[in-house]
Amino acid sequence: MTATAVVTVPIPAELTADQYGAFTKTIAARFQGVPGLVRKNFIFNRERAQAGGVYTWDSRAQGEAFYAPGGAWRENLKKAFGAEPDIQWFETPTIVDNKLGEVI
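Structure (tokenized):
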């Protein structure tokens, strides 16, 4: 079954949405071609002092392999934000894609 991970990390008080948006544009291409990754949405919440991403995976196992301790993704995130991510997993039985006009 498809899986969704909501990943958050604390952000510094001085980081603005515009700065985060510019940063995400510089790293977005890294997520193209990741095995099993269907979609990634970058997220930012100033009130909660959190940023991160919502990832849709073909399987949870593929996502867990990507997020593995010591792996490139986790090390890059820790370098950028100085913190470990919080990862929440959800089973995703149905996806409504209005851009493609599909229910998956």
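The beta strands are 3-10, 37-45, 50-57, 86-91, 96-97, 102-103. DSSP finds three helices and six strands in the chain.
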